[in-house]
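forwarding from the other thread:

> can someone predict this with zinc ion?

sure thing
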Amino acid sequence: MIELSPMPYEIFQAIKNAKNPIGYDELVKITKNTRDNLSCHISRLLKQDIIAPLGNHKNRTFKSNVDPADVILVQKVKQNKPKPRTQKRPCITCRELMDSTGFNHRICNNCKSSKRYQRASNKYTPDDWGDSSGLSDLMVGFY
Ligand SMILES: [Zn+2]
């Protein structure tokens, strides 16, 4: 089994599908790639004996050198970012269950984006209620 990434695979398909051995000019047209780009991939395909060169250097053409059934396309797999682990916890402000990512995340997005929270947060609502030093100005004022 020969695994090719999209670009060399496309070139291989173009060569394989051509009735006659095809050269650079046709490959440029079919794959819409620059000659430089093509030659890089083609030299790799040649090295792996996936395609074979024909003709002389001036009239270089290529033909498929392997059973096309053996050639498969491999897409690069994008690595997904791992989702942050969340847990259902009640928001400390509105008590709605929310997806909390941890101890520091106890206020739901609704409350965070609400005007009341934004206005009040500095004075009355410590960002982290777990912090014992987080007495608000209001609380301190009572003592
Ligand atoms: Zn809330």
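The pocket of zinc ion is lined by residues 91, 93-94, 96, 107-108, 110-111 (CB under 6 Å). thats all i got for now
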